[in-house]
Amino acid sequence: MTSTSEKQVGRSVARKEDERLLLGQGAFSEDIEPPGTVWVHFVRSPHAHARIKGIDMSKTLEDPRVLRVITGKEIHPRYHPLPAVPLSAYEADPAPFYLMAVDKARYSGEVVAIVVATDRYAARDAAETVVVDYEVLPVANEVEDAIRPDAPRVHEDRENGALVWRKSTPNVHQAFEEAEVILRDHFVNQRIHAVPMEPRAGIAYWDKVERKLTVWSSIQSPHDLRDQLAESLNLPPESVRSIAPDVGGGFGAKHSGEVEYILIAAASLEVGVPVKWVGTRTEEFVALSHARGKVSDIELAATRDGVITGIRLRHVGDLGAYPKGGTPSIFITSAMIALGAYAIPEVDFDVQGVYTNKTPEGAYRGYGRPEGIYLIEREIDRLADTLGLDPAEVRRRNFIQPDAFPYVTAAGEILDSGEYEKGLDRALEISNYPELRSEQNRLREEGRYMGIGLSSWIKTGGFGPSSLSIDIEAVKRGSENSGSAIAHGQNSPGASGSPGVSMPEWARVKVVDDGKVTIYSGSSPHGQGTETTFAQVVADVLQISIDDIEFIWGDTGTVDYGVGTFASRNMVVGGTAVYQAAQKVLGKMRAIAAFRLEVEESQVVHEGGTFSSEQGPETRLSFAEIAASAGTLRARPEGMEMGLDESSFYQPSRLTFNSGTYVAVVEVDPDTGDVDLQKLFCVDDQGVVVNPMIVEGQVHGGALQGIGQALYENIVYDEYGQLLSGSLMDYALPTAEMTPQFVTTTIETPSPTNPLGVKGMGEGPTTGAPPAVVNAVVDALRPFGVSDIDMPLTPERVWREIQDARTVNGDQR
Amino acid sequence: MANDVSITIVINGKEHALEVEPRLLLVHAIRDRLGYTGTHVGCDTSQCGACTVIIDGAAIKSCTLLAVQADGARIETIEGMASEDGELHAIQRAFSEKHGLQCGFCTPGMVMLTKAFLAENPNPTDTEIKHALAGNLCRCTGYQNIVRSISFAAESLSAGAAS
């Protein structure tokens, strides 16, 4: 039992959720099967773009194990496409995201028919007998092709490249005219896949007697799904209950817009019994959203001393066939963060979102920011190389200084706090950077190619601010959370163009008579250890044991409001809501203590888990006693309602920004192109650290996903829009042997935006790792004249770059 | 069904008689037919290892075996790792101690793999551990804490055996 006087925030508390998961008693969606459950298998289009001329299910319906075959022609008139996320920053509206194909399929894998049968195997058998008559259409595949005006239109009523956004600062062209150095580079952030280890699964049960729909699903935002179910299926929200049981990883891909869950609910509405779907891994490769796909042309203007004076960026994002969730808006934020940790005064952004006949893109750990940071971190190294300067030194010369915060970037984003140079120094220290450079020189003399790569990155946290445009003067005056600090539109100084998205979080803290506490939270964790870390926060506020705290989440039936867990918002937004609710409970307890001790509230002393007063320190009332008083008529002040049960919404006013510097150490074999990533040194500044053990685990996992993008992972389509990398045999998910040694440490620059001082951190490592690794490989191959290699840096690509560079240089090495 | 086959499998010491289609995967027999849902399915090409169980001492991917092939086999699943009165096995404790799990989906497979591996190699190096993990994927942890967990489990088991 943890002590009530020891502070819990900041301790590596063992996870409360471990035991049931280790015992195999986790309840993941596939484990759930109410009595009478029938199974769905989806018939999916094999073609990337095809008109559906007819669906013949006659043979299928002869199978006695088949209950129904449902097509788009039945779904479409009765139900609505997914509710669209408004895209106010673009001039165009999002294309409708149909629940399934109606007249045509727009990507290989789009649902064409829903087969409902008695069991899993029967449903798959039956799906093979559904005959779909397709008229194959030309495919808009690569972004560069799809963007042309004569390209086949994914959505007939609009051009593929209809989403366009531009923004410039007034003097950007002058910056380029006056530049002493100009770099121009083309970078590709390749399409990849989140690959959570748990494929999606869901069970939908329409109870026709109660007229209530219950859906269990592998999801990151149960309340959001509840709303989507209600809106798409024309049901009153109160009649829909959405439950996220244990979820085996999400990484953003399971955050919003999962049509399959709505389709099985529609099927249950038809058949009146629970309907279950479990995705196969191969199915998830085409059905679960992809990520990253961006093609960028960046120009950098700088002085001869390596100080960047301007950036011009053309940033083209691959939407896939439908705009999933907030994906179109992330193309903009992806461009905006390409200014990185640096005080770059002038920018010109030209952003375009393009529909293609491919799986829709969605959120994935980083949500567009890694792509932007990749650009600037590669450019900084390119600049260093061009000028013959050390890449650490060039970063130093460009960093935003600690006293400049809150800092408004040229893109209009407000960075809350940071000590970028301190992070760099710490990274150089833990990696023993000068020694690494010495070793590199020694090895070069032996004909071995070691490389050292840096990245100094920033990443947003705490997503869901009420406005992304802030009156900076009001913020500096300290009116942090007041309405007057929030400016909308273009009128305020320092305002950016994009209004906020207002995603608060809700929490309820309830004390029962014996002093046990229950936290209800709208957060929806799936591996983050939230059951433990939220308890740490509440334990500190109420000075109770973590063992006395229960955590309830993931069920719209028991948690009144919620937004969910994604975008590094869990601790910032969810944790602050929990903190605020706990503070309300504490306030009431102090009032009861004051009443019982017959002192003023200001004289109540709460320490060591007891309530006493300055005047009479010997009289100590325990937490349990105060809790009991709250339920006892004469033990609480007159007029005070009974009970200790408080809830709170936390709506952040602006984003947090975490940061760090990573150092990657590689050795490259020039004969095979093989990259041996030996070490990744990680310095993370995520503000206050609640649980160091959990934070370290997040760095390892997030960084490895970034490494996966840099070296191994690739979603590959052929020219017909067929997914070639459609299984774990073809898609190189990192294994333990493909993992470097991680050396991690943190610095803590508190965020001024929330009372916990936290910044969130899950996505930082995925942002920091790719450019550090690629910079390291390019650094290793500098003697060959290699200046860039496209991700993923497979041995073949590395080898080819070496050969090409050798040819260019007439090199016989 | 007409072509069903009668099989008997022993799971964690308990005998089960089943009528199964020849094509039923062992993992589905374990999960869907017998309710041991701790063993998970993470892929369909035998890469991920979330379905790892122990059969006659060997770590086996139960998605790659048909239930009929397991007729007469003695199978250990995650549900059999803790003691009768619910005390965690040293391997399970090690995974918690060293934060070797986050979402927990790959974890049963990791734990069973570890049990089989440490029985063969009670004192492994980190390199040997990483190699043993070649058939078990994790997307959350980045593996470093899993390697630490297995190393710590090896120490605990040796210490336990020695005492």
Question: How does this structure look, described?
Answer:
The complex is a heterodimer of chains A (813) and B (163). Chain A has 813 residues and is an alpha+beta fold. Chain A has 21 helices and 30 strands. In chain A, helix 16 runs parallel beside helix 17. The longest helix of chain A is centred in the C-terminal third of the chain and has 28 residues, at 570-597. Chain A is globular, with a radius of gyration of 28 Å. In chain A, 59% of the residues are buried. Mean pLDDT of chain A is 93; it is low at 478-499. Helices cover 34% and strands 15% of the residues of chain B. Chain B has five helices and five strands, in the order ββαβββαααα. In chain B, helix 2 (90-97) crosses helix 5 (144-162). Classes of the chains: A alpha+beta (813), B alpha+beta (163). Chains A and B meet through helix 1 and helix 19 of A and helix 1, helix 2, helix 3, helix 4 and helix 5 of B.
Q: SS-based structural class of chain B? A: alpha+beta
The two chains with the largest interface, and their residue counts, are: A-B, 58 and 57 residues
Mean pLDDT of chain A: 93
Assign a percent range to the helix content of chain A: 25-40%
- Strand element count of chain B: 5
The SS-based structural class of chain A is alpha+beta
